[in-house]
Amino acid sequence: MKKLILATCLCVFLSAFAFGQANNATLTGTVADASGAILPGVSITATNTATGVMTQSVTNEAGAYTMLGLIPGTYNVTGELPGFQKQNYTNVAL
Q1: Residue 31 CB neighbour total at 10 angstroms
Q2: Are 84 and 44 in contact (CB under 8 A)?
Q3: Among 10, 21, 50, 81, which residue has the fewest nearby CB atoms (within 10 Å)?
Q4: What is the pLDDT of residue 77?
């Protein structure tokens, strides 16, 4: 019985390390205008150039955004807010 409990605990303990080996990327940033004023409500889109998968986010009240769990690769990132010119960044490597 002790061996079964020990084996179970060992499997649970070792599996925790396996989950920590994820191969994902994170994209974070802050959006501001030319004068340096932060911009909340900006729609940010990251498009993986190899797969075409799009991930979207919106900047918060501090002008910050975060995109978690992105597949490593090359992305095109755009930012849009009514009243402002759309901004494009190509070949962003994650």
Answers
A1: 19
A2: no
A3: 21
A4: 97
Position of tokens 């501090």? Answer: 62
Q: With residue 13 as reference, give the H or E element that holds it.
A: helix 2-19
Residue 72: CA count within 13 A, CB half-sphere: 3
What's the CA gap between 75 and 78, in Å, rounded? 10
Full-model pTM: 0.75
Structural contact between residues 73 and 92, judged by C-beta atoms closer than 8 angstroms: no
List, in order of start, the domains of the chain with CATH numbers: 24-93 (2.60.40.10)
Give the span between the Cα atoms of 26 and 94, in whole angstroms: 8
